[in-house]
Amino acid sequence: MSQAQPPKDNASSVEELKAVSSKLGHLDRLERLLTDLELRAGLLRSPDASDGEDDEEDAQKTVSKVKDCDWEHFINRFDPTEPVCSIEALVAGTKLRQDIAAEASKRAPKHIGTKLTARVPLSRVHRLGSNSKWIHAVRIQSAPLLAVFGRVTGYDWGTQPHTFVRPFPDLIYYHEKLKDELRNLECSEKPARDSQAAIQDLRCYIDFAERRLLPDYTRIREATELNRLRVRFSDLWYLFKPGDMVYVPSKTLLRFATEEVKRERAQMLAQLRESPWHQRVWRLLVAKIPSAEAPLRLPAPPRDNENPEEDDGRRGKELPFRIVCYYLDYDGKAYGAVERSFRIEHYEGEKDIRELEVYPLRFADDPEDLLQAAKESGRLFTDAIPLKHMMCESWTCDTDPSGFPVQLQGRNLIGIGPPRAGGTEYVEGEVIIDLKETYNTNPIYQNAMANRHLIEDAYPSSTLNSGYRVIMWSDSRRSKRIKSIQDSIRTSEEIEEHQIATELKRVPYLRASTRPQQPPQGDDLALLTVRIFVYAFRLRKFLPVDVRNLKPLAAERGDPFEDLQLPENYKKMIQATVETHLKRQDIQRQIQSRRETEDILTQDFIAGKGRGLLVMLHGEPGVGKTATAEAIARSTKRPLFPISCNDLITPNVGAVELALDDAFRLAHMWDCVLLMDEADVFLASRSTSMIHQNSLVSMFLRKLEYYSGILFLTSNRIGKVDQAISSRIHLILHYKRLGLPAIVKIFDINIRNLEEVERQHHEASGQTPLYIVRPDIEQFAIDHYNKHPNGKGVWNGRQIRNAFLVAASLARHEASQPGMEGRQPQLRDTHFHEVERLTREYNQFRFRVLGGDDSRKAKLLEERDDDYEGEEDKENDSARPGASPSPTPTGGYQSPHGRVPQRPQHTVGVAPGPPQWSPVPTAPRIQVGVHPDWAINHAQAGYAGTVIRPAPQTQSPSWQAVGPVSSNIYPGQISNQPPPGYANGYLGDRTGQVTFVPLGAGAGAGQDMQAGKVPGPGTPESQVGHISSPPHSFASTGGHVVNGEVRT
Predict the structure, then answer these.
(1) What is the pTM of this model?
(2) Terminus of the chain with fewer CB atoms < 10 Å: N or C?
(3) Which of 735, 761, 785 is the last residue of a domain?
(4) Is 769 contained in some domain?
(5) For 562-582, how does the pLDDT look when each residue is reduced to its tens digit (9 = 90+)?
């Protein structure tokens, strides 16, 4: 039997209902359409019917009572003679949704009602505790009571009933004021008739609220981590109060950030992860309750092709509970709030508070410790702002405090080339904290701060239609509809605005006009982010780092110039010019602060020029040029701003100029000592064929004239510098090759530094410190220098530092070998000998490839002359007794290096040294029965036990090579790998040749160098560079020389 079809007009209305409910979802329109269907079906009478039904009827009289109702009796009245209570409470359990759907189906035509009933699937009914019931809504029907509410809130509420939905923000927010109003009414001497009714109804309401509404609120507000409880979704508002500290787990930030990135920047999903830089402590600004009518509304009916038992999340989706929180940040001028909205999705039944996406801090594990740790990091943040110049060892932060990925600056600030790939970087060394400049340079880094406006006017009262009507029926069978009233529901917007206004008055960080420049105090410190932006000098860019990894600069111990190996006149000149420049800068600032109209005068004719201090240092690598700039920065307590000029190379001169402008601006703004290392690209001589190079140099010369800070330029190619540079530079210093005193001093400095490092490591980790055999290492330094005539091949400052790193590693490796357990590692000269051997092999290889050493190559290319010692040194060298300024060997030998090597002058038991030095005595290596006229000069002869006759003071004899000859050997260089059957070592003569002497053989009298029997490898007495006493296979009286041969 076919089902009867609805009338055509009804069918069209049903289709219209479906379209509206599915597309718009507006509940008030849904109710109007349902009412229209009821009218068309004959279930309702029109408001203009003859029975006088009217929604705008006068206020009805009520009795001061509270009536509990289920949903059917809350929106229906079945006895017209029953008195109307001043307060009605909707009491229901978890099946309220089913009750609402059932009532809707009774009011709608059957074909609609069936679908409405099926709209609430069983899966959405919370079965646990289904017998428990609580108050879902409260309706105030007393006109006198509504008038009292109007006086307390400042709004005209009228006389029609108003319904308040759980969690009752109005009733709780104004409760104390309502109690005050009751006391005022009760104290009135002659209360009016209306006042008497108001007193009775208000007493009834206050009693009801304190017995049945406030206990739930108080119970949840007073709960702590120790007695935390489960909470219903409708009671979440009780949990959060404006001004509360809230805890946002990292997983919540990650989830919300993932949802946002999916919508806007899907390519950044890979960067999202739980991070230690997430802001976990926030402060609540306001909690936003879902739409007030939501708990009482009817879900939209399903479409014809949908299963009523399925809920795909699109139809009738419950609105989430939202809370607006903020943390604090600094924009370079003031501290302000950064807001973020979080949501808690609707859930059925009850949930543990710590299972919520966000919850009050008091429910977190160890909330006091968590708050204290956040305050400590906040204090580090505020302390770093005024310090500006700090040390940092930290990975960059790849997420912002809210969990969103950070797009790191790909190109360094003064770099020209293509931007590097993003990702985390490690920041190590000195940094500058300047957030104002950070955000000016990288606006993408800045999170928008809150800028709310305080509204002083009264907020309009906010109500809306409930979507249903309260109907008066003639009887419980709904035989006749007498009248209906549209129910009005109070929303929470008014209370939310009041709460926001209160916070705006209390918290200065929320408004731009009231943001404080002074750092936060107390619990506000906990709201500061752990992320702070720094300018990393080594990476030359602004980067976000963890503020907990910032440290103040270590206090200087002593004079930074004390460890700098420079001639005293150099130190004096540099310090004097720097001190004078800084004093002049202070005076200029004082003049500018007075805002005087006259220009600040300098010795330059053009205003603005000549205010800087420009110093150029030139010389071979590793002689202290960069260390000088570092010492100036440390002594003046200013940051060192190093620039690698290679970063600025580009065909576009305009881009280079902009990059230089940025570097000069930042260095001047931060009072830095600017160091342009290896600035040869900007200093090169100009020529007619190099137009691009000419443009670079001309532009750089112009910039130099207007720079007002301290600038150090270094160059290894002074011979290629443009002649115009000298007139722009205030001070040009030549750094000569390191001498023996400087070498010894640098070794001593490295020993002290290594001892301090070992002490710190021992205190931090308990690691056994190295035992440094200082005398052996100091002797090695002297021996190392004296083995290299004229200082060629001697380690420079950087090489000595590297040698200490490698030698210390070798010492620790030896101590870790089997059989060495429990022994303290020792750093001895033997470890440096190993490093020296490797260095020598590299130098020999490089010499062979280049056909000479680096100094020779630099001179041939007209870049520099490393052998230049100055006029004073030449005069002292010529005045030395017996010295030959340019000794020439017999036999017509010409050095392939273009310069005749100088043979050192030897005396018995004295090590050769620079001509201006006093002789340094050395221990003789033949200690028993030595010939009175001979000695072993260990510093020159090396480690093979070679005997050297004192050199004549008048002329240099011809040296004859005996045995195989090897090339590419430095004069005086020793090898420990002679051909088979020859002496254990050999000495290169002044021509670069090598003399080999067979074991036990004599070369005849008059030879300058012979070798006899020496201890063989593996003998107990054998020691490199030492002939034992008594020597192996020699008489106890030792050995002596007869006709150039070592004999017993």
Answers:
(1) 0.71
(2) N
(3) 735
(4) no
(5) 888 888 899 899 999 999 998
